[in-house]
Amino acid sequence: MLQGPAAQCRHRALDQAATHIAPREAVAGRDAVLLAVTWDGIEDMLRLAGAPDGTLGGTPLIDPTNAVAHGVGALLLEPGESAAGRIARLAPGARVVKAFHLFPADRWTTPPEDSTSPVTVAMCGDDSAALGVVGTLVRDVGGLPATLGTLERVRQLEEVAGFVIGLAFAGVDPNSAVPVVSAATTRTGSRA
């Protein structure tokens, strides 16, 4: 949320520069598409963008959604189902990459403090070129990309999001619930 006089000026400038175009036109010929809608709007947005007709074929489609009950973190999916998998079925030919779903949106719109270390953006996807495109975008916004694996492992990322959201809404810092394990420790064979 933008606040204060400087933010109001920025908001007015954005209003003047913004234009409205149809979703199908917005996705045409793009290097990548970020599906930045709530979970319950996924099917409608993909339909409006023409995804069932193949408009996203060959395009990296970034899935930052969290199919979880708001404030609780419980997954809204059937056992074994993943949000990214459903999106891939709804957008045939799109190169779906799960990414950007573990951090609030303002993490990417607010410049980090100089003392803040970059955050790791865990990703899953089946297409190495799409993972490369999304990895570049992650670095462009000050993050460090980390590929967990293919979409076969994506439900793990989605369950982690539910865990983080559930703790945060319960008033618990999710960082305090995860042990600090360095990459060097895991390479030497030590156990956490």
The major β-sheet equals: 5 strands, mixed
Q: Largest beta sheet: what is the strand line-up?
A: 1-2-3-4-5
Tally of DSSP β-strands: 5
Helix segment tally: 8
Tell me, rounded to a whole number, the average pLDDT.
86
Distance between the termini: 39 Å
Helix fraction bin: 25-40%
Q: Which range does the strand content fall in?
A: 5-15%
Kindly describe this structure.
Helix content is about 40%, strand content about 10%. The protein contains eight helices and five strands; from the N terminus they run ααβαβαβαβαβαα. By secondary structure, the chain is of the alpha/beta class. The N terminus is likely disordered. It has a five-stranded mixed β-sheet, sandwiched between helices.
Write a brief caption for the model.
This protein has eight helices and five strands, in the order ααβαβαβαβαβαα.
Characteristic key phrases:
single chain, 192 residues, alpha/beta, five-stranded mixed β-sheet
